[in-house]
Amino acid sequence: MSFKVDNSDLDFTEQFVKYGVAVVRNLVDKAFCDEALDEIRRVLDEDRPLNEWTVDKPGVRFLPFYEDLGRANFERNAVLEKIFDQPRLRAAFEKLHGGPGKWDGVRNYTVMVKPYDPNAKAKLGNMFHEDFGTPPPAILYRGFNAFLLVADTEPFSGNFMCKPGSHIIAQRKLIETPEADGNDPPFRDAVVDGLPTYEFVGKAGDVLFWHHLLYHEGNNSHSEHHLPRVAVVGEVYREKWLTEIDADRTDLSPWERSLAQNGSYKTVRDEAQAERHQRAKQIAKFEAEHGVTVDDKWKHYSDWAG
After folding, report:
1. Does the pLDDT at position 296 exceed 90?
2. CA distances from 262 to 13, 17, 63, 66, 268 (A)
3. Residue 208 to residue 103: CA distance in whole angstroms
4. How confident is the model over 48-102, as pLDDT tens digits?
5. Residue 218 forms beta bridges with which residues?
6. What is the pairing mode between strands 198-199 and 229-237?
7. Looking at the domain assignment, is residue 123 inside a domain?
8. Which residues pair with 114 in a beta bridge?
9. Is 304 within 8 Å of 279 (Cβ atoms)?
10. Residue 281 lies in a domain
11. What CATH number has the domain bearing residue 39?
């Protein structure tokens, strides 16, 4: 069953509250998208037309900002970081966080590339997940993500897919069982079964915002014209993790309201612990592979948003 979230009459902030996902078309100027795509080409050492990219070269890539191989030791990329300076996108961040000055201005991002796979099949898939690799997932967290396409896609371009509304069901189940693994099959199936599927197909400059408990995945990249998915994903986080939500407050931001759909809640554990552990493993692997010592501040990423 397909789902057209961006055809809704709701403002994108209300889409986010209700569905855990919102799409805004043509939110970022094409000039920046072209600049970002050129920089991604440089990082990947790839100058061929996009429809010639494959899973063999440049391969499926999930590149946090610190993995620009020309800038070791977690340094930012001066071009890609400008995603956070795009005026309409920044205004959308602030609107979801409740207005100017409410967002802390975190500037961390990831590059996602999923090129054509000649051996795949064009299908929606069914391996939906939440992003906390080390369970349990956070019930409240500290923000959301923004998925910017820097190149046009078509159906089955390895696109972002999701289960609209899954954020509410998942949170309700986690409130009942706070130590649960959100990706354990019985838990996951109870969340996503019966929900429609949305595939984010778009043009350069289109942006999808997604809730941290929205179940999602990328479909196989096997589109008609071999177009890859090329995106920059920004972390629209606060420095401090939310520890309590009062559903009776009338001044909650849209992001906070998306966390209050199951009523008021106060955390019962340190929700940063799982991410902190995962981050430590990630950094140790990076240091071993690149032969560098990572600045100590990055080892405290879950407690600081730098």
Report:
1. no
2. 18, 12, 34, 37, 16
3. 18
4. 999 999 999 999 998 776 565 444 444 568 899 899 999 999 999 999 999 998 8
5. 160
6. unpaired
7. yes
8. 229
9. no
10. no
11. 2.60.120.620
Q: Side by side, which strands form the sheet with 160-162?
A: 198-199, 160-162, 216-218
pLDDT digits (tens, 9 = 90+) for 98-116: 999 888 877 788 899 999 9
Strand runs (DSSP E) across 65-107, as ranges? none
Q: Is residue 303 classed as helix, strand or coil in its secondary structure?
A: helix
Q: Token pair of 255, please?
A: 């992001």
Full residue range of the structural domain in which residue 16 is found: 11-269
- Count of domains for the chain: 1
**Contact (CB, 8 A) for 214 and 20:** yes
Number of CB atoms found within 10 A of residue 176's CB: 9
Q: How would DSSP label each residue in 225-240? A: T-PPEEEEEEEEE-SS
- Say which amino acid occupies 219: N
Return the sign of the alpha-carbon dihedral for residues 174, 271, 81, 113. negative
Question: Alpha-carbon distance 175 to 266, whole Å?
Answer: 10
User: In this structure, what token pair is assigned to residue 224?
Assistant: 């008609």
What distance in Å separates the CA atoms of residue 188 and residue 51, rounded to the nearest whole number?
34
Please provide the DSSP assignment of 8-52 as one string: -SS-HHHHHHHHSEEEETT-S-HHHHHHHHHHHHHHHT--S-GGG
Distance of CA 66 to the CA centre of its chain: 17
Residue 167: which H helix or E strand, with range? helix 166-176
Distance (Å, whole) CA 258 – CA 250? 13
Q: Which two tokens stand for residue 189?
A: 């199936």
Amino acid at 142: R
Note whether 257 and 162 are within 8 A (CB): no
User: 292 in a domain, yes or no?
Assistant: no
Taking each helix axis as running N to C, give the angle between helix 185-192 and helix 166-176, from 0 to 180 degrees, rounded to the nearest 10: 140
Would 124 be classed as within a structural domain? Answer: yes
What are the structure tokens assigned to 217, written together? 């995945």
290 in helix, strand or coil?
helix
